[in-house]
Specification:
The complex is a heterodimer of chains A (565) and B (267). Chain A is 74% helix and 2% strand. Chain A has a two-stranded antiparallel sheet with strand order 1-2. Chain A has a two-stranded antiparallel sheet with strand order 3-4. The longest helix of chain A is centred in the middle third of the chain and has 50 residues. Chain A is globular. Chain B is an alpha/beta fold and 267 residues long. Chain B contains eleven helices and ten strands. In chain B, the strands form two sheets. Chain B has a six-stranded mixed sheet, sandwiched between helices. The chains are: A mainly alpha (565), B alpha/beta (267). At the A-B interface, α16, α17, α18, α24 and α25 of A face α2, α3 and α4 of B.
């Protein structure tokens, strides 16, 4: 390149190769192929294409932002280079796949994938189309990153919303139909994707709205900064009431299938609240958390089931406090031997505890009592004044009740003395003890309350499924809940719900993701750690912890001291 | 009346005798310093008193209550509080939260009361918060309650640690090098502050300190450790003229005045 410039073409090539490898991998492992079956915008865009172009477009965007200040030309060239380089591995894949039989090694390199990569135009024209499309996308996204905030943010949210609506069009179609009849859903969606014209309309509306919002947002932010305390209290209660009403009315909006998804999300959220206390507040890494879930579920089954294994024939409401109590006891029993353990050791012991419970449940020893691999069937659903809560949209209220219970206790404790004890213990166990905190009781309380929530979730889970099997209680549940609270933001209560929505709700809505669930978790966690280590909805404490060095420095403190003096 | 009595306390780490048959006594309302070169066993003795370590031999009595075998939290509840050589605040918690944790031994409500928010709980929390703010003001950090403790400047962190220790309303306060890393002016301020603590609140103070100006300025009694063994005790004047102390600090040659180039400090 020319002399006397800071243009870093090597970096652009490196980013391009990186993006290319990502695109190549998602193609080869079959993600593109599988996701291509989901149309986002009918005839224009599939989810497969989004996955394929995500890395090149994203990295073009990033590299354009990294070019030395104000040089628009360089930024565009860098974006172009990145995306063109990124297309090369795909081009090579297409050429190789037409010359050799790659399916021996990569069974996912199918003709359908080739069609996606070449836009169905045959090999030679397809390659050029691919490169041109990639290059254009790279240029566009580099251009995007150059726009000032007030244009960029609205456009980005327009694109995002259009993609999201496209992604969920299957469900939205069904919902629209049940509310307004076939007519409207026909207008908006074609089959199970957005019509191109509605996509355009949606994009425009969202962009304009968020542009307006962005403008007003600035003004509002200023106003709030001027009067921080006056409005906050009624505003908070208003927000509470609004959220409450939304949660209460949710099943009517969602319908049967989505209510079922919501139930799963909330059951995991109950567990999340519990693990959040153990890991988030008290800093005790518990990897065997599923054990208490299993204990709660099996207790519910034993106490209420009409099958041979049922011992008491109790009602759901009578059984649930007993399940929770037994889970709490199990929590304490696990807690006692691990009191002296910290960090990794604790994680390993709890991991083993989780496995012990699972293996016990599967064992021949206990088979006469709890059914072994056949599980326990005929668990009744709860009834309220004679009305059975059978359908998911009815059962939802039971789950919601449990979730509110767990959230409420977590919330109250987090601000109380016990919450401070847990946090102090997490920060520095020795000093916490020297502050007069009894580590034994504080740890046991964390384990017990966490286990209680998990048992509650298990009991509700058993009643929801009406039958339980040992394989429902694998290590994956523990990992899942842990990922959930990490993604949502460790120690944060709203974060638990957000994490549950992201890691339990989304995979259920996007069935294609199920197959790549673990891969997605890995990617998600890495991206989270890089981009938002404090979680999607971080707790105030965690935010402070991670932003401590960037934001406030000694200068801010010095000012505060001066103003006080 | 002596508030803390240690008789022939010994602590070994494997073959190393960190504290060797140490006798120590501090009267109610005194300010007493333990001095000695690095590695002399001063902090180890503190750790024995506060229950972090269990002494291998000897007896420690606090107001005639045996400290041996008690865990740190129980000892704190008896009325002993401490600060640390390298500041150990709860870094991600705010200044107020740090002090509130310090108040822990004095708070009585059961945790479930927080869930249902009983009147007693609310009253206690409100009082605790007020007390925390008062303490914050007392140590000169008023208005910094919402700052995360890790973000506070060094001197403020020292003072916050003191406030946290005071929050448990101790009758004996152990300060481990309270002026470490401070400039002469800050040290002097801290020295006066410690004196005020004793004069205003009647707290007995035991401190480990290297800054001789501070030690000689405020200590009513000084105990000198070297290699875990007590080599001298007495008033500031007595210690200053004690040849064994000079020897411990400056080396044998310097003490006897034979060497022209004294080594800086003994082991």
């Amino acid at each position: 390149m020319e002399k006397n410039t800071h243009f870093d073409w090597r970096l652009a090539v490196r980013y391009g190769l990186l993006a290319g490898v990502v695109s190549l991998s998602v193609s080869v492992i079959g993600m593109v192929d599988l996701f291509a079956q989901r149309d986002l915008i009918a005839g224009v865009l599939t989810l497969g294409q989004v996955i394929l172009f995500l890395a090149p477009v994203g990295l073009s965007y990033v590299i354009a932002g990294k070019q030395p200040g104000g040089k628009n030309g360089y930024a565009r060239i860098a974006g172009l280079i990145t995306s063109l380089v990124a297309s090369l591995p795909l081009v090579i894949l297409v050429i190789l796949a037409t010359s050799f039989d790659l399916r021996q090694f990569f069974p996912n390199v199918s003709p359908a994938l080739m069609d996606t990569l070449t836009f169905g135009q045959g090999v030679i024209p397809g390659i050029f189309i691919l490169m041109i499309v990639m290059g254009l996308l790279g240029l566009l996204s580099a251009g995007m990153s150059l726009l000032p905030d007030r244009y960029r943010k609205p456009i980005l949210s327009g694109i995002l919303w259009t993609l999201v609506v496209g992604m969920f069009s299957e469900i939205l179609t069904e919902r629209l139909r049940s509310f307004f009849g076939v007519g409207i859903s026909r207008v908006v969606f074609s089959g199970e994707a957005l019509r191109p014209i509605t996509a355009l309309v949606l994009f425009t509306i969202v962009t304009l709205l968020s542009a307006a919002w962005y403008r007003r947002g600035e003004a509002i932010k200023e106003r709030i900064a001027d009067s921080p305390t006056i409005q906050s209290r009624p505003f908070r209660w208003g927000a509470f009431a609004a959220v409450g009403i939304i949660f209460l009315l949710l099943p009517f909006l969602l319908g049967t299938y989505l209510s079922e998804v919501a139930n799963n999300v909330l059951i995991f959220a109950i567990m999340g609240f519990g693990l959040n206390i153990v890991v988030g507040f008290a800093g005790l890494l518990d990897l065997g958390y599923v054990a208490f879930f299993a204990i709660g579920a099996y207790m519910m089954a034993l106490l209420t089931s009409d099958a041979d294994q049922g011992i008491a024939g109790m009602s759901f409401w009578l059984a649930i406090p007993i399940c929770v109590a037994i889970a709490i006891m199990a929590g304490i029993i696990l807690g006692i031997p691990v009191l002296r353990m910290r960090g990794d050791y604790l994680a390993i012991v709890t991991l083993a505890f989780g496995e012990i419970i699972r293996i016990l449940v599967l064992s021949d020893l206990l088979k006469p009592f709890i059914g072994g691999a056949q599980g326990i069937l005929k668990i009744p659903k709860p009834t309220i004044v004679g009305v059975g809560l059978i359908r998911p949209d009815q059962f939802y209220y039971v789950v919601l009740l449990g979730c509110i219970f767990a959230a409420f206790i977590s919330w109250r404790l987090s601000g109380a003395r016990l919450g401070r004890q847990w946090m102090a213990m997490r920060e520095d166990e020795d000093v916490a003890e020297a502050m007069g905190i009894n580590l034994v009781s504080t740890k046991l309380l964390a384990f017990a309350i966490g286990a209680g929530f998990s048992g509650l979730a298990g009991a509700i889970f058993a009643s929801k499924l009406t039958s339980i099997f040992p394989h429902s209680f694998s290590l994956m549940i523990s990992i899942n809940v842990l990922c959930m609270i990490i993604v949502g933001g460790i120690g944060s209560l709203p974060g638990v719900i957000i994490g549950s929505l992201a890691l339990v709700g989304l995979p259920e809505l996007l069935r294609e993701f199920q197959e790549f669930r673990l891969l997605m978790y890995g990617i998600l966690l890495i991206v989270m750690m890089l981009a938002r280590p404090e979680g999607l909805w971080p707790s105030a404490v965690r935010k402070r912890e991670l932003l401590a060095y960037q934001e406030t420095g000694p200068t801010a403190n010095a000012k505060a001291v001066e103003s006080e003096a | 009346m002596s508030i803390l009595t240690a008789s022939s306390v010994t602590k070994r780490f494997g073959g190393l005798v960190a504290v060797n048959s140490y006798d120590f006594e501090i009267e109610q309302g005194q300010i007493v310093s333990i001095i000695g070169p690095n590695g002399a066993g001063k902090t180890t003795f503190f750790n024995c008193v506060t229950g972090f370590y269990q002494a291998d031999e000897g007896k420690m009595l606090f107001n005639d209550v045996l400290l041996n075998g008690r865990s740190p939290d129980k000892i704190t509840k008896l009325g002993i509080a401490r600060t640390y050589q390298n500041i150990r605040l709860f870094p991600a918690m705010t200044a107020i939260e740090n002090i509130l944790v310090g108040e822990h031994p004095r708070l009585k409500t059961f945790w479930a009361e927080a869930v249902v928010q009983t009147k007693r709980y609310k009253a206690e929390e409100a009082a605790a918060e007020e007390e925390a703010n008062r303490l914050l003001q007392y140590v000169g950090l008023a208005g910094l309650g919402d700052q995360i403790s890790r973000n506070l400047p060094y001197g403020a962190q020292r003072r916050l640690e003191l406030a946290r220790a005071l929050a448990s309303k101790p009758s004996l306060l152990l300060l481990d090098e309270p002026t470490a890393g401070m400039n002469p002016q800050e040290s002097a301020e801290m020295m006066h502050f410690i004196q005020d603590l004793r004069d205003d609140l009647g707290i007995t103070i035991l401190l480990i300190e290297h800054d001789m100006r501070v030690v000689m300025g405020i200590s009513e009694y000084i105990s000198v450790l070297d290699f875990g063994t007590k080599i001298a005790e007495g008033t500031a004047a007595e210690i200053q003229s004690n040849p064994r102390v000079i020897e411990a600090y400056l080396g044998r040659g310097a003490a006897s005045g034979l060497s022209k180039q004294p080594t800086a400090a003994a082991g």
